[in-house]
Amino acid sequence: MTLPDEYRDLLTGFWRADAFFNYLDTKINEKSHQEKKDHISLLVIDIDHFKELNDTYGHLCGDKALKFIALKIRNICEKFFPDNFFPVRYGGDELVVVLDNVEPKKTKAFGMKLMDDIQTSPLKFEDQSIELKVSIGISSFPEDAVEGKHLFQLADRALYISKKLHVDRVVLAKDINTLNLILRYKKYVIYVFAAIIIGILAFTGFVVTKEKTIPVRDIILKSGGSLRGKIIYENKTEIVLRPSLQKGTGKITIPKENILKIKNIESME
Predict the structure, then answer these.
(1) Tally of domains in the chain
(2) Residues of the chain with pLDDT under 70
(3) What is the CATH number of the domain that holds 235?
(4) 63 in active site
(5) C-alpha to C-alpha distance for 170 and 109, rounded to whole angstroms
(6) Catalytic residue among 5, 25, 83, 93
(7) How crowded is residue 240: how many other Cβ atoms within 10 Å of its Cβ?
(8) Whole-number Å distance between alpha carbons of 78 and 137
(9) Are 93 and 49 part of one and the same domain?
(10) Tens digit of each residue's pLDDT (9 = 90 or more) over 25-37
């Protein structure tokens, strides 16, 4: 499919978004009539922290970063898929590559290679050497979708998840549901992990409490005496007390076998 140069983006030399879906839909329509459908893979590529880059170094640096990434994409495509790629500047710092007759496994390898090349060759701007990173979402026809817009939406969603989980990574559309569950329950996983750690500490007899919430207590000793203060550490055999009238970080260790009773006096905030 041949397009006039008026459909090219002036900054990157890639095709513009208005040519993208026309090309993609044409390719999908061709393959939909095949008995054994060839692959079409779609990569959506986004520069990580692009706004911060513009805010820190200015928009001229942002433009140079886009041209730098576009050149990296073109060089790798021409090396590995010289007749099978269609590069697009979709908008802002979001770039798209359509790979014709390239299966998902090879597409992911391409994405990883692109990320590695970008990270290992910093952008030179004025007297600065700036490390750039990208995140990538990938979808494939016919495995993930059989319609152009849906295929793009899945790759874009995979890109979004890659940024939510961790920037600088490749996410496949087939993994979206699994990774969505991880995102949804991530905080609960943290709570469970914390509960496990607390359980281990309790099982081993070692408990640490925040001093601000520890009540003041009277420790009645079997010898007849008593001590007042906060219990700041405790295990199966002893307690560590910070006496109420003692300033600084002084503390007393009392064997539990010497304690007759422990009484709560008041709560300290």
Answers:
(1) 2
(2) 1, 167-168, 186-191, 193, 198, 201-214, 245-249, 266-269
(3) 2.30.30.100
(4) no
(5) 9
(6) 93
(7) 15
(8) 21
(9) yes
(10) 999 999 988 878 8
